[in-house]
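Bumping with the actual sequence this time:
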Amino acid sequence: MAFCQKVDIVYCDQEIINDNGQKIVTRPNIDRIWIEQVNIIGNSLFISWDKWRNSPQIEVDKFISHLLKIDGDIHISHIPYPLLSTTKDFLDLKINFQTKIPQFFEKNSKSNSFSIIICTKNNSQDCLRMVNSINCKSSSKNEIEILVISNNTDNNEDIENLKKLNNIKNVRLYHDNGIFNWSYLNNKFAKMAKNKILLFCNDDMEILTENWDEIISQIINSSDTGIIGTKLIYKNNTIQHGGILFGWQNSVIHDGLFEDKNSTEQFARWQCTRKVSAVTGAFLAIRKDIFFEVGGFDDKEMPISYSDVDLCLKVKEKGLSVIWTPLIEVRHDESVSRGLDHLNNFKAERCNTERLALEAKWGKDTFSSDFSVHPMWLDATLPFRLLQPVSLEKALNYIKSYKL
């Protein structure tokens, strides 16, 4: 650890050897929000005498949480090697299943006003269902305005159905007949938004969680928070989005894809509110002042596919966090209005062009790894399936690249 100017605490991975064979427990990097919910660092660590001598003698995870609260200058490093061995098969999981907001956010205000922007085309039934779920599941729909943008809807049945939105007090229906540019449409109508929090949603969704607006308000009212994403699930109760991972096959991929929505694997990463690299624009909340401060979505270089990732990077560049939470579940049927990119040659080529624009803007190295993914995980398949040896060079780069 000599390359570090200052390290206060070090933790490592763990090897379990017993009658069932050998198992490697790969731990994630430290996250002050995640560790509040699950002990992600284990029960063994190396700690400087300076930090230990005046600290309370309590459980390791509570001890770390205590230090993080009182010491803003603490430095914690994770060595991505199993330096400890045991015969006991346990993962230190003490999960506060998500019945309440993490303590990190619980003192923040639950009240705030939302402007929700939904783009739709020839998908009126799903759009009406989404609008209904927004209002029915909110704690106060009087604090919510919904802007629905019909982009080139040309099916007569859908045109008639969308007129029903005019009868809902907090909904405004707009028509835009320009070429579909998701980023441009959201930027344009965000300027018309009246409220403090912007929430960008797809039309093919349904909010399943009561009081979702209070949860977003508490998290977004933290001075550290820039953007919030939530748990999106398929009809079969598997995960569609648990955040966005960088560095998977030199690109990005949805975290938790196809995992059971209640899975507690990987230190319950899909049951815990935590920091992530990015979240999808299919359900993305951000304060309006921050959105315009960073320039909104890039509607020139990334009109459809990667402007959500770009927005997250711009917000993180300002020193703010991108937070993913499972406290809100949203069913997502995925791209009903415009179809899936990989099934259309033109859309696939456009998607690739936008990915190259993203890489040109932020550099390929930005997407070479993810701070929350252990370097031992191999990206040959879906995340968290196969392990690989970690070279010393890769381990050192992993340690040096992460800052709490």
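The tokens above came from a reply further down the thread. The CA atoms of residues 183 and 294 lie 14 Å apart.
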